[in-house]
Design goal:
This protein is of the alpha/beta class and 286 residues long. It contains nine helices and twelve strands.
Length: 286
């Protein structure tokens, strides 16, 4: 009986490796409709030991300075009276430029999740993250980031690409060529905790694989839509290949954080550069 169970796991893992290498199972429309689904891997909910990995970057990991992950959405002008929700998610291009200048002057270096996971980054590093994949990341944020020689990660909703107000596939390709990292924000931005196992796996795996085809890069980072996740979501995210997951919980990333549920610092409502720096320092001292 033990031999049979062992062989079943061997075949399961072999099948997953083959699927990952071939990628031939993935067919998505731009609206996020899944026109051909992948086989659902059974038994994921029984895997618990792989979740909860600590951030051990080096022998002196506990001595390293905490890393802020800033969470942006829109870089645009918006009226707080006519669109209060959108205003809370937005910074103007002018304010964003002041953020970059202040961070630069304060001695911060921007890094990507890939660099963070490598452990090869300087003290006083931070990650700039942008959720949802709006086209103003390309038209407004990108030129300012390039001017300051800074990098960032854009978490893209794959099914929304080429739709109005969202990035196009061509723009994503240009961003990658510029050195920006692309992460997954799923296929259709659902509440992942509300999905059954089949749909959950599809949202996580198909978005990652589709973005890998588009960018030619390995996609290792995910932002959970609306910050909704639970232990089941973490197990599936780990199992399909994500190494870096961000939430909407407030805080800085240190050696004790789990790699698939990292906190961030929310930015929006045209928060001033001084207020942003003060918030980071307050979190660092708390």
């Amino acid at each position: 009986m033990k031999l049979i169970r062992f062989l079943n796991w061997v075949f399961l893992l072999f099948g997953l490796v083959v699927l990952g290498l071939t990628g031939g199972y993935l067919y998505l429309s731009r609206s996020g409709t899944i026109t051909r689904t992948i086989p659902v891997i059974e038994g994921i909910n029984k895997i618990t030991s792989v979740v909860g990995v600590q951030l051990i970057q080096s022998a002196s990991a506990d001595e390293r300075q905490e890393v802020p992950i800033l969470m942006y959405h829109y870089v645009r002008e918006v009226d707080s009276n006519t669109d209060p929700l959108g205003y809370g998610l937005s910074v103007s291009p002018e304010i964003f430029a002041s953020h970059l200048a202040a961070l630069e002057q304060a001695g911060y270096t921007t890094i990507t999740p890939q660099q963070f996971l490598s452990g090869d980054y300087p003290d006083k590093s931070l990650i700039l993250s942008f959720d949802d994949g709006y086209d103003d990341f390309y038209s407004q944020a990108r030129p300012l980031l390039l001017e300051h020689q800074m990098t960032a990660i854009a978490f893209v909703i794959y099914g929304f690409l080429d739709q109005e107000n969202y990035l196009s596939t061509g723009q994503v390709e240009e961003l990658v060529a510029d050195g920006f990292e692309i992460g997954s924000h799923t296929v259709s931005h659902p509440n992942l905790t509300s999905l059954d196992d089949t749909r959950l796996q599809q949202e996580l795996m198909e978005s990652r694989t589709a973005l890998e085809r588009l960018t030619g890069k390995r996609i290792i980072a995910i932002s959970y839509p609306s910050g909704e996740y639970d232990e089941r979501v973490l197990r599936y995210a780990n199992f399909v290949g994500y190494k870096f997951g961000v939430t909407v919980e407030n805080g800085l990333v240190g050696s004790k954080n789990e790699l698939l549920k990292l906190p961030r610092v929310r930015v929006g409502g045209n928060e001033s550069a001084n207020d942003l720096l003060a918030e980071i320092e307050n979190l660092r001292s708390s």
